[in-house]
Design a protein that fits this description.
Elements: H1 5-22, H2 33-39, E1 44-47, E2 54-57, E3 65-69, H3 74-89, E4 95-97, H4 113-126, H5 129-138, H6 147-157, H7 161-170, H8 176-185, H9 187-195, E5 206-209, E6 216-220, E7 225-228, H10 230-238, E8 246-248, H11 253-260, E9 268-272, E10 280-283, E11 293-298, E12 304-305, H12 307-313, H13 321-325
Parallel strand pairs: 1-3, 5-7, 6-11
Antiparallel strand pairs: 1-12, 2-3, 2-4, 7-9, 8-9, 10-11
Helix pairs in contact: 1-4, 2-3, 3-4, 5-6, 6-7, 7-8
């Protein structure tokens, strides 16, 4: 029986390693958790459920099945999906998850052994050590130097800022006191510092696009902001006539004045809209950015049954014997 977080992490870490291997998912990159659920053969549905995170239905009660609140932010939705997948991989029974925030509920007894192990699974599945170290390397460091690094790490991994801060402690890459300080500062404050005067435009995640981070896929959702340095901005602008779903953000005079006070290079901003549905590869012929390229990949969900799962499970029934032999 699991009674401590240490025990939960020991069990969950191994289960997450096996899950990535079973689903043929590399351990050093962002993971498509919804694709992992499909590969596990689990029916997946999204529905607007206020005050609810997700539900897992076990095989013992006519499952498996997973239901997720479609109104969660994308990082929280991904974390919830990984948590529910954890229930499945760990052989748990039915689970109805109303609170998955450790920072809000750390009182003794607030988490059962089952919930602790599923929560730990979500962390190790979304943020295995190889993936975290690779993303930190992309940011030019081997350990997070500030809350800004933790936030950018979260966007690269598709995880929540609070979840990353918490897991960096598990990985012994951050002191627990520092993690708590960053969490108290809050995602909104860190996000605003990175977006500058563009922060008010939308409440989505902020992705910093510069030529120091290269050969990476940036996963974005509707309302996310792409804050770009001049070289990246030119690369987007050159393709703008071919891009559907990115809108350049224009500032008023007061905000322009704020932008002029920021450190160089001057930044520009693009907002992701729901119409952005195709991958976009950016590269530059600027000599100072030789070999630089990134891919911007849209991530979205819709209410109802996951169509990708449904399409894989539907097998056409032949109308005639001749068709069945073709």
């Amino acid at each position: 029986m699991i009674t401590t977080w240490r025990q939960a992490h020991r069990v969950a870490q191994l289960a997450a390693v096996h899950a990535r291997a079973d689903f043929d998912l590399p351990r050093d990159t962002y993971v498509d958790v919804l694709e992992a659920i499909r590969r596990a053969g689990i029916p997946l549905m999204f529905q607007d459920m206020p005050g609810h995170f997700g539900t897992y239905i076990s095989p013992a009660t006519h499952g498996p099945g997973i239901l997720i609140n479609s109104r969660l932010t994308m990082p929280t939705l991904r974390h919830t999906a990984a948590h529910e997948l954890g229930h499945h991989q760990l052989g748990h029974g039915d689970a109805n998850d109303l609170n998955l925030d450790l920072w809000e509920s750390q009182a003794p007894g607030a988490w059962t052994g089952t919930e602790m192990s599923a929560e730990a699974f979500a962390a190790w599945f979304l943020m295995p050590r190889p993936a975290v170290l690779r993303c930190l390397q992309l940011l030019g460091t081997d350990k997070p130097r500030s809350a800004h690094d933790a936030y950018r790490l979260a966007t690269l991994l598709g995880a929540s800022f609070r979840g990353v801060c918490r897991h960096l402690v598990n990985l012994e890459l951050l002191a627990s006191a520092t993690a708590a300080t960053w969490v108290r500062a809050g995602r909104a404050r860190v996000r605003s510092a990175l977006a500058g005067p563009y922060a008010y435009v939308a409440d989505g995640e902020v992705h910093i696009l510069d030529t120091d981070v290269r050969n990476v896929t940036v996963h974005v959702a509707a309302n996310d902001l792409l804050v770009a340095t001049p070289t990246v901005d030119r690369a987007i602008t050159m393709l703008f006539s071919e891009i559907v779903g990115l809108e350049r953000v224009e500032l008023d005079d007061a905000a322009e004045g704020q932008l002029d006070l920021l450190d160089e290079p001057r930044i520009a901003c693009w907002q992701v809209t729901p119409e952005f549905t195709d991958s976009l590869r950016l590269s530059s012929d600027d000599p100072t950015a030789a070999g630089w390229s990134i891919v911007i990949e849209p991530v979205s969900i819709r209410d109802g049954i996951d169509l990708s799962w449904l399409e894989r499970r539907q097998t056409p029934i032949p109308d005639t014997p001749e068709e069945s032999t073709e």
